Amino acid sequence: MARDARSLRDPRLRGDAPADPGGWPADLTELPGVGRYTADAVGCFAFGRDVLPVDTNVARVRERTGEAFDAGCAQALMDLGATVCLARVPRCGSCPLVAACPSRGRRYEPLRKQSRFEGSFRQRRAATLRLVSAEPRPLGELDREAVVALERDGLVRVANGLAGLPH
């Protein structure tokens, strides 16, 4: 995501993409399907905003170290949380923050176990979104519960008995 976001700023990479956030809402969560994390990540990496996008890895590192960190640390914190400060068994021996980390050497129980994707509502939502992304589809051909959830999240628009992507 960071590489794609940087392409909006780098004239060598962006083609005809805008170099600045002109035309974008100040709060990117106003866009359909964009949540707080995605808005902060795009704001930080593409628009250079001073905001730290907090994904599960960044939250874990912040919680364990007790440090707030700033936007300049975003990519490093994401990488550290994904590769070293792991959820259950952190690799403290490889961590550059180990000397000052109050959590060094601890083991953690999982916060929750994610349910299987196969046969889940998440799978039904994904299948429905895949169908309507190809072309608008009649509601009768789609999983109605999934359409309602996708519409609520701003990912699908229903009009005249058809479900399709928002414009």
Which terms would index this structure?
3 strands; 7 helices; 3 domains; 167 residues; mainly alpha; three-stranded antiparallel beta sheet
Question: Can you characterise this structure?
Answer:
Helices cover 37% and strands 5% of the residues. The chain is mainly α. Strands 1-3-2 form a three-stranded antiparallel β-sheet. Strand 2 (157-159) and strand 3 form a beta hairpin. The two termini are 23 Å apart. 17% of the residues are buried.
Structural class: mainly alpha
- Alpha plus pi helix count: 7
Beta-strand residue percentage: under 5%
Number of strands: 3
Q: Distance N terminus to C terminus?
A: 23 Å
The major sheet is characterized as: 3 strands, antiparallel
Shape: flat
Give the number of domains: 3
Strand order of the largest sheet: 1-3-2
Using the CA coordinates, give the radius of gyration: 20 Å
What is the H-and-E element order?
A: HHHHHHEHEE
